[in-house]
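Supplementary Methods. Inverse-folding protocol.

Structures were first reduced to a discrete structure-token string of length 340. This string, shown here, constituted the complete conditioning input.
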């Protein structure tokens, strides 16, 4: 199957969706989150991920769109569904690029730890950045107050100072989420020396990136090297809600670097939110699997479940929180999926 993707510098060409697709997409992420939540704390991340993929794929066919997966489960997941280039949706309606992460935080779910979510983003066909061989990128993300202050080419200390000034607070009041990885030892040390609070996470940097762009989450910045596909999804959310994300591709070795160069990618280029998602009609939905800074996790009730979701649309700038209660027996009868 051919793949419809866009590398940096290519011009988008797509028909604009004429309604808020995010309100349809939330049913997709709710289904994925409830399916994954059965596996919270059970130590089996593969089963949790497969359950989320199955539920998301099933529900996607009910959405009125002609979608092509640009950011999918990917090569490293060896996924049989929701792979790059797969067509999803009813086949009618707007032509869109689709970025999915049915379970962002598989290990978090398996270990019962915070910040696992199910998330999906859409934009007009041909407007999402395709990362090619780049599985990782260096990122910095923030909310609207500091959008003009951050600079991925500046030092961590400079960024802490600039963001604190933009927010009118002391650097000691700036909270920064960083993935807990050996590669971040120097970054963490410098951020702490600059006076910032460093909030370390095991996995899953989409939710913290979105949280950094929202008020009242306790997160001011996301910094460090994480997944490139996750960077595209986070950029879609930030484009909807305001704020900024900057990234630079981070090849892991000479072979990956050469593959990117051969593919026409500029490794030194700073990728902005608009570079990663060029569309003007962007839609994002996310549902919590385990409770974190952004969303509450799935809560089971007698015969049902409660979910907490966020849905966003870029054209209107509308961000909605949706709390839903689900009758699991009825959902299972309708869908044929097991939610508990």
């Amino acid at each position: 199957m051919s793949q419809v993707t866009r590398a940096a510098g290519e011009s988008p060409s797509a028909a604009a969706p004429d309604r808020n697709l995010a309100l349809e997409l939330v049913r997709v992420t709710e289904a994925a989150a409830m399916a994954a939540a059965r596996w919270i704390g059970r130590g089996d991340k593969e089963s949790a991920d497969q359950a989320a993929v199955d539920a998301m794929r099933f529900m996607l066919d009910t959405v009125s769109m002609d979608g092509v997966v640009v950011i999918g489960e990917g090569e490293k997941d060896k996924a049989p569904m929701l792979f790059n280039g797969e067509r999803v949706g009813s086949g009618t309606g707007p032509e869109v690029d689709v970025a999915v992460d049915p379970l962002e935080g598989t290990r978090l779910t398996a270990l019962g730890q915070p910040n696992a979510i199910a998330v999906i983003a859409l934009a007009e066909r041909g407007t999402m950045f395709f990362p090619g061989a780049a599985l990782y990128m260096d990122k910095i993300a923030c909310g609207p107050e500091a959008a003009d202050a951050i600079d991925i080419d500046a030092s961590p200390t400079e960024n802490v100072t600039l963001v604190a000034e933009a927010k009118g607070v002391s650097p000691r009041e700036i909270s920064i989420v960083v993935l807990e990885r050996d590669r971040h030892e120097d970054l963490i040390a410098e951020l702490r020396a600059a006076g910032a609070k460093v909030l370390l996470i095991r996995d899953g940097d989409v939710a913290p990136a979105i949280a950094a762009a929202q008020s009242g989450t306790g997160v001011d910045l996301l910094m460090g090297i994480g997944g490139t596909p996750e960077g595209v999804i986070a950029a879609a959310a930030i484009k909807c809600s305001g704020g900024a994300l900057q990234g630079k591709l981070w090849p892991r070795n000479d072979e990956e670097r050469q593959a990117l160069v051969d593919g026409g990618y500029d490794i030194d280029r700073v990728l902005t939110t608009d570079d990663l998602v060029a569309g003007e009609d962007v839609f994002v939905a996310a549902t919590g699997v385990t409770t974190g800074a952004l969303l509450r996790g799935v809560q089971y009730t007698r015969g049902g479940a409660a979910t907490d979701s966020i849905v966003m649309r870029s054209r209107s700038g509308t961000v909605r929180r949706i709390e839903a209660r689900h009758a699991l027996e009825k959902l299972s009868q309708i869908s044929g999926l097991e939610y508990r």
